[in-house]
Design a protein that fits this description.
Alpha-Beta Plaits, UPF0250_YbeD-like, four-stranded antiparallel sheet, UPF0250 protein HNO84_19530, YbeD-like_sf
């Protein structure tokens, strides 16, 4: 499925900019590291120090807020697709 293209002049985001992404997945030892590796593929300068982690109240899920350096709409779209299609991810905001 192809995403509609938004002309640069209609985008609400100025590039480059720091852009927070929230990723929620099942609490597993490898979840955070796996997500970091995936994000680095799209933002090579990303480092784990830019992550906020919060477990759910029951400890079943882990929420990661990652601040990436967004350089284009294409980069963000590709990253969202990669994250949301990953088997460990429940949803991406």
């Amino acid at each position: 499925m192809s995403m509609p293209t938004i002309p640069a002049e209609e985008s609400l985001i100025e590039y480059p900019s720091d852009f927070p992404i929230k990723v929620v997945g099942i609490m597993r030892d490898e979840f955070a590291q796996t997500i970091v590796e995936l994000v680095v593929e799209h933002d090579p300068e990303f480092h784990a120090g830019k992550i906020e982690m919060r477990p759910s109240s029951q400890g079943k899920y882990l929420s990661l807020t990652l601040t990436i350096r967004a350089t284009s709409r294409t980069q963000l779209d590709n990253l969202y697709r990669a994250l949301s299609s990953h088997e460990l991810v429940k949803f991406v905001l």
